[in-house]
Amino acid sequence: MNDVPFTTGRGGERPAAHRPVTSLLVANRGEIARRILRTCRCLGITTVAVHAPGEETAAHVTEADTAVRLPVPDGRGPVHAYLDPRAVVGAALAAGADAVHPGYGFLSENPGLARAVTDAGLTWIGPSADAVERMGAKTRAKRIARDAGVPVADALAPEDVRTEHLPVLVKAVSGGGGRGMRVVRDLADLPSEAEAARAEAASAFGDPAVFCEPYVPRGRHIEVQVLADAHGTVWALGERDCSVQRRHQKVIEETPAPGLPDPLRRHLHEAARRMASAIDYTGAGTAEFLVPVSGEGFGDPVFLEMNTRLQVEHPVTECVTGLDLVEWQIRIAEGEPLPGGGPPAPRGHAVEARLYAEDPREDWRPRTGTLHGFDVPAATARFAPLTAPGVRLDSGVEPGDTVGTDFDPLLAKVVAHGHDRRDAVRRLASALATARVHGVGTNRDLLVRVLRDPAFGAAQTHPEQLHTGYLDTGRRTDLARPLADPATERLAALAASLAAAEDARTGATVPAGIPANWRNLSSQPHVRRHVVAGGGEVTTAYRALRGAYLPEQSGIRVLSAAPGLVVLEEHGLRRAFRVRRGGADVHVDSPLGPVTLTPVDPLPEPEAAIDPGALPAPMPGTVTAVDVAVGDRVAEGQTLLRMEAMKMEHRVTAPAAGAVREIPVAAGQRVPAGAPLAVLDYEGAEQ
Length: 687
Hints:
11-stranded mixed β-sheet; 687 residues; globular
């Protein structure tokens, strides 16, 4: 839909304060920093990166023209290097930058940074500090929205919630990204959940304030992208559907929103423009709405919040409009007006999937390690708007990078643009399924299954199939299954065994006259055991006869074998398996699905005995709260303590009923993976 421009009547010439940007500092890291750097290079703007200690070789650092190391406050983690406005402005001045772009997250919606930048005589790539401040507190933003004629949900203080208000969603007044959010269905749970939300909000945003609003279990999360210049023109660049979420954080986003009636679409666009106009907004921003949905259709939308920054999911809007939103953020900051005639009409459909280093099967637990391989062969562009249907990759990592727990677990965004929704979804599912991600566990298999799920595909004609509860526990368990089934795991293990045999053969010195794979007990096959990532063990056996491999598995023929590629024929079907060793694991990729295997050492080293009551840290992180004391009796599933890692809270619970014998950690303590967090004496342990 091609909306007409919305004008406030503040037109005029370019303000005298605006000046061209020649050198820009990106006050961010990872994927979004690289995205902004790419546009700056195209515009001929010199770039400056900032980084925490230890990130000297990060991709966003090496790609910038200049880089500045930010200090870390004593006793704080590296994430805090990005949270000091004075340090960011000091880095910009030291590097000779004349503009600052905040990206998203960190200080992007902090009015203190916006003011510090402009007070230093630099150009702020974003809305005014006043607009950021007015939208920063969600309760105040709701009042502004109501005054502008935009429908809003009631905001209640936790102490004012009554039974008739349930269920409610506890939300942080400041910030976003799902931090400080809790669903409460029982009034008795509200005090503890509100307190936990306050602690998380204080840690994430420096503001412990929370509020409650009605919880809509089956709603569509729809947001409208706005772009406004300093001359009074406000564009609504279409809407995005962000209803597929985990922990109140978006996983898959698309535009246009499937199944949305045109009158409702126009209503949301107009409401977003009114919000932007009400605060004299400039630059790129997003108005977010929740729209109830059922088998009878859509209900009345309510305003949630306005994000005064670039959104993570902005590439889907770029795909259908052809605009570079980062470029327009810069041009607007330089005083340039939006073109006359309104925004471009949308072209086709675009879908984005967020590839996270996490395990959906274990309550989204973060995964860490060395990224031994990272490749999306289907990608036709990187960090750039697509000019034709295809696949775009915006990644914050490269092969060899270490994925830790200090920052968000987002590895990359994979975006597909198609002629229509079915075309875009199919392209994206294929691109993810054929991606090679080695060394770190991800949510890739879940993303592929969601995109191929009939319920997700039917959202265009059956809108009620898609809602914010789509990934509830039951559905998530099914969708999180690995793409590779047990039969594929057996084939992958055979391919790994044959690749290892070829690798050993080509690297070994064999005496003259001794054939390859010779063994002194030829009647017995070669047997290899592997542990499959996620659980389970698979054993393969083969014989080597006169240079050929003969698998013990019925119906399998080895067509060729090399250290990196094994081609097998199964009951007449030929399939290639790419094999790569990374650390202690072997990664096997094929059209049947990726498989990660760990070879079992036939002569393992003895291990030290482990106290059976000890609960080790599942990942490196910071203990944020200890909920029990030594001597307490606990029930199965009861929360013992909470940790923060990769910007998310993780609860450590009792695997069985018992008594707390020891708590060797305290709140605020950083712990490595495997460190003992608590020791329990279980009831009935003698049985």
